[in-house]
Amino acid sequence: MLRPPSRDDGGRWEAAWRQIFPLTSGSRGGKDWGLDGMFRVKICGVTTPADARMVAEAGADCIGLNFVAGSPRALGVEAARAVAAAIPPGVLRVGVFAGKSAAEIVAIANAVGLDAIQLHGHLGGESSVMPTAASPPFDPPGLCAQLAPLPVIRAVRLREDGPAASALDPARAWIAAAESSGQRPAMVIVDAGAPPSAAAGSLGGTGKVVDWGRLLAAGDPGLPLAVAGGLTAANVAAAIQACGARAVDTASGVEQSPGHKDPRLVRAFVAAALAAFPGDSPPLPNRNRATLRFRTGR
User: Fold this and answer.
1) Burial degree of 219 (CB within 10 A; 0-12, 13-18, 19+)
2) For residues 296 and 149, is the Cβ–Cβ distance under 8 A?
3) Which one, of 272, 259, 187, lies nearest residue 231 by Cα?
4) What angle do CA 180, 291, 15 make, to 5 degrees?
5) 114 has pLDDT over 90
6) Based on the number of CB atoms within 10 Å of its own CB, is 129 exposed (0-12), middle (13-18) or buried (19 or more)?
7) Exposed end of the chain (fewer CB within 10 Å): N or C?
8) What's the pTM value of the predicted model, to 2 decimals?
9) 195-245 pLDDT, tens per residue?
10) 32-296 maps to which CATH number?
11) Alpha-carbon gap, residue 89 to 287, rounded angstroms
12) What does the alpha-carbon distance between residue 289 and residue 65 come to, in Å, rounded to a whole number?
């Protein structure tokens, strides 16, 4: 079970954590999932304040800001600060990174006002050594502890070769290594597979659809799970029904062009996802922005 970071502050830290991410009694396959997740519907790659307001008004409870070099949706700090300022209270502001050091990520998180971090680089085995400039971007398991108290969402890619039952084994190994380093991620996002040599800018937002049957066969990753990869208003309900996901994430599926969201597609996607979630999905807490900032120290 995921536990809040340990702090000697008379319990104030744990109380704040529990207020935002309370324990649930839900289980899947007899396993206690602990937390049901940080969001239901995440729209990633938002690049303008106007789109941020539109996405929130459509009903998404999480917005992703991209800081991955080479992505057509990547933002600089000043542009990201303007987008983040337009996101209303109660909607999570998640920064997406690949191959950055903890110091770089924390500096951007503080400057922009992020609530959580999504690590989107390659799993890179269980090494805690940062990559060289010439290597594909990977995010070592030790980053979770280094980024605390910021909660981490780990994007993983479903293996497309070998038995379906082992398609998430590299992700499980990464999560176990992160726990051994002192902190597990709070949530996992499963995206479509990418070759080990894939550059940072091609690791997400490609429109490639996850094999939902293979994901179901891969089993419980041990953390709350969101599905990404080529989701649109036309297929998000089928994805939820096929693999039992309780959260979804999309970027290209609601765009006119990379980085420019289509209001009609956004509204249709959010409505279709919310209507398709299982009836036993508990409502997420009403998050208070002041509490979030207490948690992250801003």
Assistant:
1) middle
2) yes
3) 272
4) 55
5) yes
6) exposed
7) N
8) 0.80
9) 454 444 444 455 678 888 899 999 988 899 999 989 999 999 999 999 888
10) 3.20.20.70
11) 8
12) 17
> How long a stretch of residues is the chain?
298
Tell me how far CA of residue 239 lies from CA of 160, 204, 209, 264, 271, in angstroms. Answer: 17, 18, 10, 20, 14
CA distance 96 to 224: 18
What is the identity of the amino acid at 102?
A: A
What six digits make up the tokens of 83? 């987008």
Cα 54 from Cα 59, distance rounded (Å)? 9
Cα angle: 38, vertex 259, 270; to 5 degrees: 45
Q: At what angle do helices 102-112 and 77-86 cross, to 10 degrees?
A: 50
Q: What are the backbone dihedrals phi and psi of residue 175, each rounded to the nearest 5 degrees, phi first?
A: -60, -45
Q: Is 237 exposed, middle or buried (0-12, 13-18, 19+ CB in 10 A)?
A: middle
Q: Exposed (0-12), middle (13-18) or buried (19+): which is 31, by Cβ within 10 Å?
A: exposed
DSSP class of 201: G
In sequence order, the β-bridge partners of residue 9 are none
| Residue at 104: amino acid letter | E
* 3 state SS of 14: helix
Region of poorest pLDDT, from 44-48, 68-72, 173-177: 68-72
Going by C-beta distance under 8 Å and a sequence separation of 6 or more, which residues neighbour residue 145? 178, 181, 182, 183
Give the pLDDT score at 36.
Answer: 59
Both tokens assigned to 51: 């789109």
Strand 225-227 versus strand 260-261 pairing type: unpaired
Q: Are strands 92-97 and 27-28 parallel, antiparallel or unpaired?
A: unpaired
The residue type at 189: I
- As a whole number of angstroms, the distance between CA 122 and CA 138 comes to 4
